[in-house]
Amino acid sequence: MFNIILFGPPGSGKGTQSERLISKYGFKHLSTGDLLRQEIAANTPLGIEAKNFMDKGQLVPDEVVIGMISTCVDNNPEVVGFLFDGFPRTEAQSEALDKLLKLKQTEIGVVLALEVSEEELVKRLLNRGITSGRTDDNNEEVIRARIVEYHKKTSAVADYYRKFEKVVNVPGEGSVDEIFDSLCREIDNRI
Ligand code: B4P
After folding, report:
1. What distance in angstroms lies between residue 30's CA and the mean position of ligand 1's atoms?
2. What are the backbone dihedrals phi and psi of residue 73, each rounded to the nearest 5 degrees, phi first?
3. Which of 11, 12, 97, 155 lies at a CB distance of 3.0 to 4.6 Å from 121, suitable for a disulfide?
């Protein structure tokens, strides 16, 4: 099993690149953003709680996302590997993920960190907000709050995995194809 974390600030292209990586390598895609949006659409108690945080650009509490991911990992015993997209986003989530994978006698193979400038992130997300209907994308203040939250809590995830020499920085600006090729090169070197 080879497991990947696709890492980067909001709007860095994690969702976009995940789709392509999954169709090329057959990984099981686990996107906490998508899972949370499904809970919101189904109006579950978890979704109602998560929406309060997401609409303000804040992270959803660790115990909520860790529980959700743990269930998904348990429900997918026969996969070639997991592609974690948007998870972990805090140090506590990173530690919980490592424990979860250890129980399955596996680990994170590589953390691919997409690097994109703040102005480009804001431009992309505002642009997506025009068509996506996502309430966290159509307001610049909320987008900037998400970026602040990223610097405050999520960038620590890269520091955590750097201790284990698992982080590779990948330029996230340029065409989707160019970025995809760089990500594939890094995976092929390690798989
Ligand atoms: P997520 O759903 O994870 O999404 P994201 O950070 O907004 O975006 P992503 O990086 O996937 O961008 P995308 O490819 O779509 O998070 C949403 C919210 O959920 C969080 O703010 C938080 O509240 C909550 N949440 C999720 N996970 C959590 C966790 N683990 N813990 C706590 N809370 C959690 O790309 C964005 C846009 O850029 C698209 O329109 C795309 O077309 C465009 N784009 C992509 N690549 C491009 C390129 N190369 N050039 C130009 N445009 C490009």
Report:
1. 13
2. -65, -45
3. 11
Q: Give the N- to C-terminal CA distance of the chain in Å, as an integer.
A: 9
Ligand 1 pocket check: which of 5, 36, 39, 116 to mutate, most ligand atoms within 8 Å of Cβ?
A: 36
C-alpha 65/C-alpha 87 separation (Å) is: 8
Q: What is the pLDDT of residues 2-59, one digit of tens each?
A: 999 999 999 999 999 999 999 999 999 999 999 999 999 999 999 999 999 999 999 9
Give 126-144 pLDDT, tens digit per residue.
Answer: 999 999 888 899 999 999 9
Run of H or E including 176? helix 176-190
Ligand 1 pocket: which of 124, 125, 182 to mutate (most atoms within 8 A of CB): 124
Any idea which residue has 């709007």 for tokens?
11
Mean per-residue pLDDT over the chain, rounded: 96
